[in-house]
Fold:
Amino acid sequence: RTTVLLRARSFGILLNEFIVLNQELQENPGLLSDPNWQTEVRTTLDLFVASAWALSDTGTVPPEYHSIHQWLVQVGPEAQAMRDHYVQGIQQGDQVSLQAAGENLARINDLMTQAEIAMVEAGWEG
Structure:
């Protein structure tokens, strides 16, 4: 339980860092040609994906936490897909890939919301 909560916190911090970088792009599309911004966003995404895989890989799960685990195991693959779509989108200026990354991000949000609901139901409040 503690491991999952610590990993979820790290995941959330990195997700917020990515969202800030993406917002910068929305406000200044010229960043697509800025190698420093591209390096920063790739690094952030790589760290985000690593944290997502760590969240998905919780090891042996007690039966009472299976409902939480069923949501968390999907986060790593979805984050990887988001990263891949986003990087392709910024490298090639491909709006379809960027849209796909947005859809991945929406699914990640849904997965984490469901995991949080399951955590509350399992008594993880507080």
Observations:
- The helical segments are 2-27, 35-56, 66-72, 75-92, 95-121.
